[in-house]
Write a structure and sequence with these properties.
Multidrug-efflux Transporter Regulator, Chain: A, Domain 2, 72 residues, 4-stranded antiparallel sheet, alpha+beta
Length: 72
């Protein structure tokens, strides 16, 4: 269930994984490699919160095709 804070819609980890079609392991690996840049927002419990723009970035990465790994 997304969360609305100060007019900005945020998603929690499980929602982001489902929306982007990736596993939690993949999400955490991408976060560790700094895919989203500056730190991800967190709520007062310390849970990660992702904006719609960050979700879109993850979707693009999940659907990216690396030409060097394709068999021709």
């Amino acid at each position: 269930m997304s969360l609305l804070l100060k007019g900005v819609k945020y998603y929690r980890t499980a929602e982001v994984c489902e929306l982007a079609g990736i596993s939690r392991t993949t999400l955490f690996r991408w976060l560790k490699s700094d895919l989203l840049g500056a730190g991800v927002a967190r709520d007062r419990r310390g849970w990660r919160l992702f904006t719609e723009a960050e979700v879109e970035t993850l979707k693009v990465e999940a659907n990216r095709v690396d030409g060097s790994t394709l068999n021709e």
